[in-house]
Design goal:
Blueprint: E1 9-12, H1 16-27, E2 32-35, E3 49-50, H2 52-60, H3 64-70, E4 72-74, E5 76-81, E6 87-92, E7 105-107, H4 110-121, E8 127-130, E9 134-141, E10 144-150, E11 156-161, E12 164-166, H5 173-177, E13 182-196, E14 210-214, E15 220-225, E16 233-240, H6 246-250, H7 252-262, E17 271-284, E18 288-289, E19 292-294, E20 300-301, H8 309-328, H9 334-363, H10 367-382, H11 384-394, H12 397-404
Parallel strand pairs: 1-2, 1-12, 2-8, 5-14, 12-19
Antiparallel strand pairs: 3-7, 4-7, 5-6, 9-10, 10-11, 13-16, 13-17, 14-15, 15-16, 17-20, 18-19
Helix pairs in contact: 1-4, 1-8, 8-9, 9-12, 10-11
The protein binds flavin-adenine dinucleotide.
Residues 12-18, 35-38, 42, 44, 46-49, 110, 134-135, 167-169, 173, 191, 193, 237, 277, 296-297, 304, 307-311, 313 line the site of flavin-adenine dinucleotide.
Length: 407
């Protein structure tokens, strides 16, 4: 069903998923109006790991040159046992070089991905950005939807559109307006992220730039990003017990204490930023209801261990960009049901299952179970066939195969 003159797809949310979708639609010649609550793109310091499967998709969209120039390439990642101090397993995506041009993760902060895509799209009437525009409700009709939003002057405006896509994150108003259930659970603990310019690798505390330290008491993930330029920023992520008040966790003593307990050194760490996050495992019952679609965190959330959440959202955006543009060009609307079923499968069997297993590997308390998990990941790293299977899963290539098997 072709768009009539003046009609545009409405995308809600200028995060990485909203922008990948906007670019994918723009490449297909579909005009987009993008509504974003903030007064410009947000400098969001959450995601940084872009997986090989997502790099392939971003290359198709023509935005990987800048990601390579400004990001940090990381073929390997390490699992460490903090209790014994040993390196449990090293995985190397280089072993996937026979099947992908991108056998590595690139550490590239999500706000930079948004910047890159906005620059790539440039100034065009086909993409209209409406910042300071907070969506407050949606009414569905047989052939479209009316989106209500508070505009930059605080007035309520409406937009009529044949299709609206919610890329508006965990608290998605679009998902709620469509009355789509968000099924799953929330962990009792929060996660704190701490960014410091201390060089953990130079200090011998890390041997690569993507590290997962397992510990039944307090695990840690340790990564490097380029930040605002060399020498870069190291990010640690720790669990925060449910009964620890936020202000205690985020106080200078709380932040220094947490870092010093795990990585003792002389003198304070220089802290660049901190963030405290609720953590969930949830997936929508459907990604498609009438004229409303959802993608990214609006459709699924998971714990960040393994760097999968945004990547799953990029996969949604690319799949939806393709299927929605085909429907607009006249293909049956059933394709959008297929989008929903495929991305639901990729989430449940891929991202959700893997991120839940990753967290168990980090924080299992039972000594026998913990040892069993560490032994299993070590065995996978030492056997080339198992290591390849592990890398295919961790890079989300397997989740794409799982999705494509759904018809
Ligand atoms: C500590 C941490 C580390 C992480 N690391 C990784 C990683 O390395 N790799 C990875 O793949 N994932 C990671 N993630 C997950 C990742 O950050 C998210 O999956 C990703 O941000 C989702 O992108 P999105 O575009 O769907 O939503 P968001 O990034 O949340 O963007 C939503 C946008 O919608 C806007 N918005 C919200 N409501 C409205 C409204 N009503 N009207 C208009 N606009 C609205 C918001 O302002 C925002 O700009 C991490 C998460 C955490 C907490």
């Amino acid at each position: 069903m072709a768009l009539k003159s003046g009609e545009r797809v409405v995308v809600v949310g200028c995060g990485p998923v909203g922008m990948v979708l906007t670019l994918a639609l723009y490449r297909k010649g579909i005009p987009v109006t993008l509504l974003e609550r903030a007064d410009g793109p947000i400098e969001d310091q959450r995601a940084a790991a872009i997986q090989p499967s997502s790099l392939e998709m971003l290359a198709e969209l023509g935005v990987t040159d800048e990601i390579h120039e400004r990001g940090l390439i990381s073929p390997t990642f390490h699992y460490r046992d903090r209790v014994s101090g040993e390196l449990v397993a090293e995985f190397d995506f280089s072993m996937l070089a026979d099947m992908t041009a991108f056998p590595y993760v690139i550490q590239y902060e999500q706000f930079k991905l948004v910047e890159t895509i906005i620059a790539e799209i440039g100034d065009t009437p086909d993409v209209e950005y409406r910042f300071s525009s907070e969506v407050t409700g949606i009414e569905q009709h047989a052939d479209g939807a009316t989106v209500s939003f508070k505009n930059q002057d605080g007035e309520t405006e409406t937009l009529r559109t044949p299709w609206v896509v919610g890329c508006d994150g965990f608290s998605s108003v679009v998902r709620q307006a469509a009355e789509i259930d968000f099924v799953g659970f929330t962990y009792p603990e929060k996660f704190v992220k701490i960014g410091s310019d201390f060089d953990f690798q130079e200090a011998g505390m890390a041997m690569c730039i993507r590290n997962f330290f397992s510990d039944p008491g307090e695990w840690c993930n340790l990564f490097k990003v380029n930040g605002y330029g060399p020498p870069g920023i190291w990010r640690t992520v720790f669990p925060v017990p449910a009964d620890e008040p936020d202000e205690v966790c985020l106080s200078p003593e709380g932040i220094q204490g947490r870092l010093q307990k795990f990585f003792p050194k002389e003198g304070d760490y220089n802290i660049i930023y901190t963030g405290l996050y609720h953590v969930h495992q949830r997936v929508v019952e459907t990604f498609h209801k009438g004229r409303i679609l959802v993608a990214g965190d609006a459709a699924h959330v998971n714990n960040p261990i393994g760097g999968l959440g945004m990547n799953g959202g990029i996969h949604d955006a690319v799949a939806l960009g393709d299927k929605l543009s085909r429907v607009i060009d006249g293909a049956p609307e059933d394709l959008l049901g297929l989008y929903s079923r495929q991305r639901h499968k990729a989430q449940m069997d891929g991202v959700q299952a893997t991120s839940i297993a990753n967290k168990k590997l980090m924080d299992s308390k039972d000594p026998a179970m913990r040892q069993e998990q560490l032994d299993a990941v070590r065995a996978s790293s030492e056997d080339p066939v198992k290591a390849r299977a592990y890398c295919l899963n961790a890079s989300l290539f397997k989740s794409l195969d799982q999705a494509n098997a759904v018809t």
